[in-house]
Amino acid sequence: MPEKRPFERLPADVSPINYSLCLKPDLLDFTFEGKLEAAAQVRQATNQIVMNCADIDIITASYAPEGDEEIHATGFNYQNEDEKVTLSFPSTLQTGTGTLKIDFVGELNDKMKGFYRSKYTTPSGEVRYAAVTQFENVIDRKPYPDDENVVEVKFARTPVMSTYLVAFVVGEYDFVETRSKDGVCVRVYTPVGKAEQGKFALEVAAKTLPFYKDYFNVPYPLPKIDLIAIADFAAGAMENWGLVTYRETALLIDPKNSCSSSRQWVALVVGHELAHQWFGNLVTMEWWTHLWLNEGFASWIEYLCVDHCFPEYDIWTQFVSADYTRAQELDALDNSHPIEVSVGHPAEVDEIFDAISYSKGASVIRMLHDYIGDKDFKKGMNMYLTKFQQKNAATEDLWESLENASGKPIAAVMNTWTKQMGFPLIYVEAEQVEDDRLLRLSQRKFCASGPYVGEDCPQWMVPITISTSEDPNHAKLKILMDKPEMNVVLKNVKPDQWVKLNLGTVGFYRTQYSSAMLESLLPGIRDLSLPPVDRLGLQNDLFSLARAGIISTVEVLKVMEAFVNEPNYTVWSDLSCNLGILSTLLSHTDFYEEIQEFVKDVFSPIGERLGWDPKPGEGHLDALLRGLVLGKLGKAGHKATLEEARRRFKDHVEGKQILSADLRSPVYLTVLKHGDGTTLDIMLKLHKQADMQEEKNRIERVLGATLSPELIQKVLTFALSEEVRPQDTVSVIGGVAGGSKHGRKAAWKFIKDNWEELYNRYQGGFLISRLIKLSVEGFAVDKMAGEVKAFFESHPAPSAERTIQQCCENILLNAAWLKRDAESIHQYLLQRKASPPTA
Ligand code: BES
Ligand code: ZN
C-alpha cells in the first residue's frame, strides 16, 4: 500500500454543545445560505477553532464568550484536502462557554454527497429537483439562516448525537403513516402519486421497531421515524436519526410490479437501517476504525429482524450465500484487510465500506452469537447500549459487555477474528477406534492461492461444532479450537455414520476433509440427509478449494452433479453463482459451449419440475427459485426455455399477457442474450416507458447480456446517458463486463475512455470502487493485471486503491486457475458428452 496520507482528527480544545442551524435552499439556482449558532465550550484557551468543512464558503464567523462581546474571526484557512477549516481570532478565546456564529453559502451539488440536488420527474412529466443530504462519511460538514415568501420550518432539539446522522430533505413527497405498537409515529415518504408503494416498508418498519425495542430492551429514542425514497442516491440507504433516506428501489414496493427479491431486499434494508437507530446512532463508534461494528452488526441483525417478520423467507440460509461466502472470497486474498483497520484520511473511510466491514463483520458476529447463545448475547447488548447511550464506543467496549454477560473469553476469541485478516482452513481426518471416532484437526490460514506457506502462520480461536448422520441437525460436540492442532474423540459413532464439521455453516472457516470423510458425506447431498445450509457450505468450500488449487475442479463438477434432487432455493443460488464464476473463467477458452451444456444438464431437471407457472400453495422461495433456474437455463441457451421465453416476451410487449414481476428478469435476460438489435430496442423502449425505478433497474442490469459488438457499444453509451440515474450507471457497465467475453473488453475500454467523467460523477467514493471491481475482476490473463495496475497508476483513485489491488490479485488467480485446470475440465466435459451420466 502506498504511504498513508497524514491526517489529524479535530483538536479537542473547543467542543460543540448544541447546534442551531438555519438553512435556505434555492432549488432554482442550486445554492443555499446557512446560519449556524452553536453553543460551544472552550476547554483550553486558544485563538483558533478548527472545524470540518467541505465545499462551503464562510461569509462571517464570530465567537461570543457568555455575557461578553463578540469576537470576529479574521481569517478562514481552508484545508480542502482534509475537509477542514481553521478560523483565526484576533484575541484569545478564554476557557468557558460561548456562542459560535457562522454565516455561509454553498452549492447544491449533483454528486450525491453533502447537501445535494436530486432530480425527479413529476407525474405530469415535469423535471424538478429536491434538496437532500448525505453526510456519512462526509465527516460531518457542509451546511449548518430572510424573505417574506419563504416558509420557515422549525425542528425540535435532538438528543446528543453525531453530526453525520443529521438529515434534511426539501421536496414534494406523499406519505403513508402508522403508529407502531410501542407508540412511535412511522411515515414512509414516496414520490408524489406513489403513496401506495410505501405500504410494504411501512408495515415492515412498524413491526421492526417493537422487535428491536424488545431485543435490546431499550426503547426507540425519538418520538417519530420517517423513511424517505430519494431519486438520486449513491448508497442503498442511510440511517440518519429519525429520517432514514433510501434509494427508491430499497423502499418502494408495488404489489403487481415488484418481484419477490425486491420485497426481500426492502425488508432487509429497512431492518438494517432501523437497527442503526440504536446500534450506531444511540451509541456511535468512537472512530472509523470501528465502522465495522456499526455495519457488521446491522448487517447481521437485519437478518434476525427479517426472520422475525418473514419466517417463510428462510433468510438465514440466504445469509450464508449472500454474506458469509462473499466475505470468505474476499478475505482469502493477500490484499484483504483486518476487520479493524486504522483509518486516517477521509479517503480511507470510503475504502472500508466493503465486504470485510459488512459481510465478514456480520459473519463473525453470527459466529459469536452462536458461541454465546441468544440469551446472554441479548443481555450483553443491553448492557452495552445502556452504558454507552449518547456516547461513543469502541470494539473492546462491546466485547467487555458480552464478556460480562456470558462469562466467556470474548475479547480473546474475537481479537483473533477482527485484528488479523483472513481465516483458517481446518483440515480434518478421522479414524474409527472401537465404538468411537477419533478426529485429527489442524488449522492453517486459507489463502486464495492455496494454504498459507511459511512460518508464523496466524492462528485463530475457532468455535467448532461437529454433527453426525445420527442427528444431522444438532451438534454432537462443540469445542473451541485454540491451538494449531487438536485431537477430538466422538463417543459412540458407528463406522457407517458420517461426521461433519461446521453445522449450519456458522464458523468462519473452510473445511478440508480427508478423501474418506468426504466420500462418506457426498451421499448426504444426493439423498438430502445433510441439512440445506450444510449442503451449501460443503459445495462452496469445495469450490474455493478448487479455485485455490488444493483439489481439482473436476472433483467439484462431480459434486455439483450430485445436486440432482436439490429442492432448496439458496443451495441452488450458491451453486449457480459458482457455476457462473466458472463459466466466466471458461469464456477465455474455446470450450465455453461445453460448460454451457453442463449448466443445462445440471439445471434442466429442476427446471422441468418447476415449470413456468406458479403452482397452488407455492410461496416466496419457489418464486425466487423459478426465476433463478429459468434465467440460468435461458442464458445457457436451453432450447425449450428460450422458445417459451420468446413467446412470453412477445405477449408481454404486445400487451396480451403481462409477465409476472418474478419472471421478468429471467425472460429479459434470455431474449436479449439470444436476440438482436430489435430486441435491444424493444428493451430500451420498455425502459423508457417504465414508471417504476425497480423495472428500470431490472432492465438496466440485463442489457449487458447482448452479444454483438455494436449492440454492446450502444448499451455502454446508454449507461452514461440521461436515461440512467447516476448511481445506476455502475450496474449497466458492470452488466456489460459480466455479460460476455467481448463485453468485458469493451467495458474496460469504455471506463478508460470515459474515466474523467466517471470519476467526477462519483467524486471518488465507493461507487467508483464497485465499478472497477465489476468491470475488471473477470479477466484471466496475467498481462491484464499489469494493464489495470498501470492505468490506475496514471489515473489515481485513492478510495479504490485496495479494490484495485484485489482485482489485480484476482486476475492473476484466474489466470493460474485456468492454466492449472482448463485441460482437465475440458477432458471431463468431452468424456461426459460421450457417455452422459445417468441421473
Ligand atoms: N451507513 C450506511 C450507508 C453508507 C454507505 C454511507 C456507504 C456512506 C458510505 C448504511 O447503513 C448502509 O449500510 N447501507 C447499505 C444497505 C444495507 C442494507 C447493507 C448500502 O447502502 O449498501
Ligand atoms: Zn449500515
Automatic annotation (TrEMBL):
Essential cofactor(s): Zn(2+)
GO biological process: peptide catabolic process; proteolysis
GO molecular function, one term: peptide binding
Localization, UniProt: Cytoplasm; Membrane
Residue ranges occupied by any Peptidase M1 membrane alanine aminopeptidase domain in the UniProt entry: 200-417
Protein name stated in the entry: Aminopeptidase
Membrane topology: Single-pass type II membrane protein
Homology family: Belongs to the peptidase M1 family.
Gene name of this polypeptide: NPEPPS
Native organism: Odobenus rosmarus divergens (Pacific walrus)
Domain ERAP1-like C-terminal: 498-811
Record text on cofactor binding: Binds 1 zinc ion per subunit.
Catalytic site: 273
CDD domains reported in the protein's UniProt record: M1_APN-Q_like
Enzyme class: hydrolase
UniProt-annotated site: Transition state stabilizer, residues: 358
Cellular-component GO terms for this entry: cytoplasm; extracellular space; membrane
Binding site for Zn(2+): 272, 276, 295
Predominant cellular place of this UniProt entry's protein: cytoplasm
EC number: 3.4.11.-
A Pfam family: Peptidase_M1
Alphabetically ordered keywords of this record: Aminopeptidase, Cytoplasm, Hydrolase, Metal-binding, Metalloprotease, Protease, Signal-anchor, Transmembrane, Zinc
